[in-house]
Structure to design on (119 residues):
């Protein structure tokens, strides 16, 4: 809340003209025009990207260990079940992420020796 520069009373909004707003002191009637603060830009819809791990051949044990590090939800699955599931599909979707996070996951995955793709 703004204060009157003359008597330190409360400045109250009276009117707006274009980008200017008039505030008037409720105690002494002092008038002050100020530039209206533009509303913050509304963020556009956030585009999430899908991150998938692709298998060029049926995944090896090493690849499965690596995948488990990227996809914690797979960590609890018994190896046999996991292997069966992964061999049925040519790729595994890690999830949908903010672009920055997706880049992070992909570079992590690459260090682990996986082939990842962003969609
Ligand atoms: Zn005043």
């Amino acid at each position: 809340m703004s204060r009157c520069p003359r008597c330190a009373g409360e400045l109250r909004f009276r009117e707006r003209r274009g980008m200017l707003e008039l505030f008037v002191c409720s105690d002494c009637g002092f008038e002050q025009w100020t530039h209206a603060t533009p509303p913050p830009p509304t963020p556009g819809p956030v585009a999430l990207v899908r991150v998938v791990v692709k298998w060029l051949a049926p995944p090896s044990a090493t690849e499965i260990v690596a995948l488990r590090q990227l996809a914690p939800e797979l960590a609890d699955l018994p190896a046999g079940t996991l292997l069966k599931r992964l061999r049925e599909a040519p790729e595994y979707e890690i999830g949908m992420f903010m672009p920055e996070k997706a880049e992070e996951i992909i570079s992590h995955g690459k260090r682990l020796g996986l082939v990842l793709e962003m969609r």
